[in-house]
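Internal ticket - ligand job 306, nicotinamide-adenine-dinucleotide:
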Amino acid sequence: MKKILITGGAGFVGTKLVLLLLEKGYYVKVLDNLIHNQIVFSEIKDARFEFIKGDITKEEDVKNALKDIDLIVHLAAIVGAPLCDKNPELAIKTNINGVEIINRLRVNIPIIFASTGSVYGKLNELCTEESPVNPLSLYGKTKYIGEQIIKKSGNYIIFRPATAFGVSPKMRTDLLINDLLLTALKTKKLIIFEGNAKRTFIHVSDFAMAIVYAIENFEKIKNKIYNLGNEKMNCLKKDIAKIIAKYTECEIEISRSGEDPDKRDYEVSYEKIRETGFNTCMSIEDGIRELIEYYYTLNKDLISNK
Ligand SMILES: NC(=O)c1ccc[n+]([C@@H]2O[C@H](COP(=O)([O-])OP(=O)(O)OC[C@H]3O[C@@H](n4cnc5c(N)ncnc54)[C@H](O)[C@@H]3O)[C@@H](O)[C@H]2O)c1
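stdout (structure tokens):
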């Protein structure tokens, strides 16, 4: 039985991945400092699961977490441009120094590293893994440096995932689709900036499934970088708003102010990962229907007639 360490396993992607791996029979250890004060895992009563509250920037915590581990999934990070800009020192310490510590201590342990599509910055072409990399935000820059650190030691898979959405045991309502839908349900109005920007998405279940796929096919697909998503989920921001309006009957207003710090406005090719045999399952509409149910369950006022 493989023993998997998930750093940042108490996050949006990590909590989904933990459940999936346990379901598949893996032994799962999570190292997470619970930076968002999240309460997770209270319902997991499985002898194959271990949670360590610890910090990837502390060598002792990482050494302790790495004991008896066959493979690392590195998700711990200060995630997203707004959060990194709010605390640049912490972003650098976590997304760069933390990666250095893990990479040095992992020796030969294989690692799957969640980078981000934000490493590309502004692009005027179809985005493939060969496209020039030019991260603009501190988030994109720190994640790109993280990639370089991991690559130096080999024995890795690097994913550059699309923007995730959907329901997870540790929710993130700041992610574009999750945020727009919640706003539409609450206010019946969506104010969209850069409506013609091309964005690309992945459901959180598919993100987690891709990591399981990478674990199970590590030798076959290792030492490469893959964009992670699906061309069917390349869409204009205003088209996302239209889908949301279809389900919520909200009004859409296009605003001239506001801009994406990562300047994401391009189509992404996911051919490279698909050619290896991986494909996503969830569509944007599937994810939106699931989210609506989740938000309603959480807040009955959203459906009250008051
Ligand atoms: N969610 C997305 O849209 C998306 C897209 C592309 C890439 N990614 C990457 O996927 C990974 C997971 O993203 P997420 O959406 O689950 O983010 P998240 O913020 O929900 O999860 C990150 C986790 O890391 C933990 N953490 C932060 N600093 C730590 C530290 N010093 N030591 C230990 N744990 C620490 C947090 O407590 C949190 O549980 C990140 O590396 C992110 O860059 C996410």
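Auto-summary: The chain has a mean pLDDT of 94. The longest strand covers residues 27-32.
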